[in-house]
Amino acid sequence: MFRLKYLPHKKPDEKIIFFMRRHWYVIFEVIVAYILLGLAPLGLAFMINREAPYFLQNEAIRIFLNLFAFTYYLYWWMMFYYAWLDYFLDVWIITNYRVINIEQRGMFDRAIAENKLFRIQDVLSEQKGIFPTFLNYGKINIQTAGTKERIIFQQVPRPNYVAQELIKLIEWQKRKVEKTMDREAKESMDAEDRADFNNGRISGTD
Prior knowledge:
It is built from four helices and seven strands. The chain is an alpha+beta fold. Strand 3 (98-106) and strand 4 (109-116) form a beta hairpin.
């Protein structure tokens, strides 16, 4: 489980609200596909042994098939491992201050992006297709101010609920920032008034 202490620039009162990976059905589809790919050579070998057993009596052919099977399953295992890493290491985190997108782009390539909640302008959830609708997973698009790229939560569970809660967090954070800015502005104004008063009093004594 991801620990909050590993978050960069963590604030003292920062809390994780949502910690998400892709929906379980996504990796389920991958596992089923790779099981079928793993069984395919075994099925082919069974058919050849049943329909044309004389084909395997040639020593050179058997060596070639063994080498092919070894290479095939080596790549099969590497690709399955990469697919699992891509699922497990792609993470989206929502805290009470920011949104963090951790994306595994390759075996040794990882990208981490974050945006403050008060900078987010638009949140849109999408569910397209039969399985996403029935299993309740989909995509969340997050648009921020400025020219930054959108953050996209891909195939996450409960996208509508997460989007609604994120909007509430954004509104809460914006109100908090506005109050902070108003307080700082008042404090700055009071400091200027005090400076003017002191300057006037000094000039009056002269």
